[in-house]
Write a structure and sequence with these properties.
Mean pLDDT of chain A: 84
Strand content of chain A: 15-25%
Number of strands of chain A: 11
Largest sheet of chain A: 6 strands, parallel
Radius of gyration of chain A: 21 Å
Order of helices and strands of chain A: EEEHEHHEHHHHEHEHEEEHEH
Largest interface: A-B, 41 and 41 residues
Oligomer: homotetramer
Amino acid sequence: MDASLVLERNGTLWIREGRRVRRGDLVAVGRAEDGSEGIYVHSLDDSDDEGEFRFMTSAVSREKPIDYLLMAQMLLDERDRGGYPIWVTGPALVHSRARADMVWFIENRFVGALLAGNAVAVHDIEASIFGTTLGMTQSGVASSGGHGLHMRAINQVRAAGSIAAAVKAGIVANGIMHALVTHDVPFVLTGSIRDDGPLPEVITDNIAGQDAMKKHTTKATMAILVATALHAIATGNMLPAFVTNDDGTLRELPTICVDSSEFVVSKLKDRGTHQAFGVVTNAQDFMHILRLYVEREITARATPNT
Amino acid sequence: MDASLVLERNGTLWIREGRRVRRGDLVAVGRAEDGSEGIYVHSLDDSDDEGEFRFMTSAVSREKPIDYLLMAQMLLDERDRGGYPIWVTGPALVHSRARADMVWFIENRFVGALLAGNAVAVHDIEASIFGTTLGMTQSGVASSGGHGLHMRAINQVRAAGSIAAAVKAGIVANGIMHALVTHDVPFVLTGSIRDDGPLPEVITDNIAGQDAMKKHTTKATMAILVATALHAIATGNMLPAFVTNDDGTLRELPTICVDSSEFVVSKLKDRGTHQAFGVVTNAQDFMHILRLYVEREITARATPNT
Amino acid sequence: MDASLVLERNGTLWIREGRRVRRGDLVAVGRAEDGSEGIYVHSLDDSDDEGEFRFMTSAVSREKPIDYLLMAQMLLDERDRGGYPIWVTGPALVHSRARADMVWFIENRFVGALLAGNAVAVHDIEASIFGTTLGMTQSGVASSGGHGLHMRAINQVRAAGSIAAAVKAGIVANGIMHALVTHDVPFVLTGSIRDDGPLPEVITDNIAGQDAMKKHTTKATMAILVATALHAIATGNMLPAFVTNDDGTLRELPTICVDSSEFVVSKLKDRGTHQAFGVVTNAQDFMHILRLYVEREITARATPNT
Amino acid sequence: MDASLVLERNGTLWIREGRRVRRGDLVAVGRAEDGSEGIYVHSLDDSDDEGEFRFMTSAVSREKPIDYLLMAQMLLDERDRGGYPIWVTGPALVHSRARADMVWFIENRFVGALLAGNAVAVHDIEASIFGTTLGMTQSGVASSGGHGLHMRAINQVRAAGSIAAAVKAGIVANGIMHALVTHDVPFVLTGSIRDDGPLPEVITDNIAGQDAMKKHTTKATMAILVATALHAIATGNMLPAFVTNDDGTLRELPTICVDSSEFVVSKLKDRGTHQAFGVVTNAQDFMHILRLYVEREITARATPNT
């Protein structure tokens, strides 16, 4: 989204991010949005003409219902047409018990790629080895001595050489990273300034990390952003607003943003990811109900109408 | 909880709220909590001795897992032992599609009484008659002209004379109020300063409203407070901290408080309902998953172990 | 705002709230907003035509700057023209040290009337008598035995007969209620279901409470709503959207809504108070800076330009 | 805080972060916190013995007063004794008008070092060159075409070679970065995965970024964390819990954490920065009032008691 239109010497046009533009590149420049400078900007018009007085017109609100059926159908449609849904998640997904649900989505081929930070993998692997996340048990109790367990988990993976190696060696025997490795689903783990560790696969340089994420956002046909402000906005910055259908027409790239507060979704929209659809809820509960609706929809589609 | 110990003339002791204490009543007075003034204050000690360094020790956090299985088991145990679980809900429960789940809990005898404000009944009845809540469709879209529908719903009930009459007349044919009336589950609707309307059964005087709620909190053996700061704190003020078991021993009165933010639960605890257990999530999702776990637990209990 | 247009027998037109409409009244009815049914609905158009791509377009956000100078000028203009600014506040104003600033605004004739709940007066009077609010000292520490002090404060006022009497008797010697009484600024205290007490002047019936508030919202030329969801929405429901200028033209009734989160302001707008201007901050800090800007503006206006 | 105790070959003891521990290092290992394994863990005990029933005991709450006077005195004391207060800020500080106040703190020697992300510098420099932040004017209005201005600001600095060079060339003529450069106050800008740009001085590798931050946290005698979850937790991870006084005794390192919600402060504490003192408010308002109190305290200290 935040990129430049560059004319290559061989006559082709490329969309290139700022950090990739080089001295001498021919960049399309214009400020008018009406085409008068030869550049035409188009977005879908979501205004309407239904009268001035209405209630509940806010863009994002915890008071609005969540349409899980629609999201379930979109995920199944994506899988049917061979789409590439990218999932971008924060560590809250692993703190809570949504971990089993995330594994289910990976195993059932609803995940094209996972983009996340070091913490998601650290907590997931701590859960696999020690049964805790940040030293907290599954029932939410802080355990004595538990504050060091994530460091021990990191150390075991570093000793194995990589997450993939730790999975193959049986050190990491279940969970999200295990499912990704065993099902050959690509993942990108990028570092942040607050990381402990980091784990071996984590890309600690942000420019390199953005390039690694970009490879997947370019292919994305859907995006599900759960419980992460940092990575949601990072992904939003790279995500195309539209996907090309088989018949050449465009459709908006479906972007679901899940967070506990309205703030993250508003922030995402305020930074240009206008198509984002906000779901204000707890990450654990979102994952559990979404899976439930997907399971029901699979059953419904498998049942012939009589 | 916020009450006085009064010695009656006939020698019995009563716990009486401030507004019910009369001139001449003999009230136990003391500030020391160590028994030195003849009054001994006891609460459960939740401190522990597991070392000073731990992570994730905050009392309430959206980062903590939610133990739906435990809550489901508690609800079933209450039903089995003939308990009196009171539900206290805010209108968010009806805005979203948790309405169907609330009906399920009523129909399946998990609700001893419902305590709520005018808005819960108004939105529920608007949904029954017009299919919208505050003019918003079930998919969350603000409908043109919809901002007046809740007033039309109120008018229809007022014309019928009461909610119960509107149910019997078939005007209100489904939903929470319909389920309460048809299953003879008592409800208390109290007014607030921001009400439109109000509906006929709504008690507009707060003192009278508190007395009506008090009749149910006295009998309560469990409390589920969903998406309401006002009524949650009102109920917390009246709720005993303990229930007497059949064998005369005491157990803490289980109190679940569900809200989108940590703030309401902290506020509830800050005002003395120390036993409240906080669930930070969306009301719709809470209801849906809780029902799911209760259904699973019913199946599990019905299945003989082999 | 939420009211009906009623044609009286003597030919005059009145705006009347639902609870005041009587059988036989002639009420203007129409659903079309284009005037085709003889009723023409008008609101200010805030749309614009400045291109589709912009950042930071959300209606309310803590990331947006707060224009204290503008608010200070509006308050001074209101005072100069003899306006009637109504203040609607929650107890957070008294918990924190904004209490002294609120007193300053009352003493300096920036408050036409104060509308609030029982708790505002209870905490203010507890602070006056005991120096605490809900047992918490001014530096925010919970004091031992302090949880009973608000009840003792209520008892002292009840013994005096009224807040005004307690002020005159010197029991309440400073604070918000003291300033209101000694400066003859009217106040309305309405009850809520979670009240302890209540204090003598508190109107416990909500219908009567709405009528009492209505007397002031009708005269209002500006509204400042601080740290209260309940009373802000109650007031928003009654507040006209426009004020008539001396020359007969209309201007929007300036409505400032201050809260710690975006949610309350969005909720207020979602319920029809479209003109509300949101300030997302802490009530204490808002009051302190607003006062500072008003003081500076007074000095600036008093200084002749040279 | 999150580090290992390493015994060097020359017999000295070092505290070393995980990423700096090398194969063969002798690391102190122990899980018991009672000294039984030869390692004794000590922290200040903040428990008390003032009875079981109290209100308002939550650790962090927007309902608690903010003691600006105390914070102002601490800042002045730090300046008097030649302390090294580090400031860690998020971009909200620049979005809003707290920018001028931050400049004032730098110019008046209250800032030992500034630790922040790319965005703080980008927004600050956009404000200096174009008068907007993320295209939003100082009064909070989204300007047409403004969404590209932060990229133009970045481009101008990149063309100059560095922020320092841009300041010297007069391109950046005011603001936070200008004040830091002209007053020789060190700053560390670290990158994140969501950055546009980045600016020349930004350290894009997180390991290198942590090392750069560490140089300042080691010297820190006070920490002020404003409106940043990411950098606040990153700094908290590195910050010692205690400072050594001149007489060899220890005092807790004063750590102030300012955010719009209780959540960030709780999260910081949940990750081990137990000494953090939370201020729940808007960053702009915090900066403005803190400056006001510091100015008043300067005047008070300059005035001889008579």
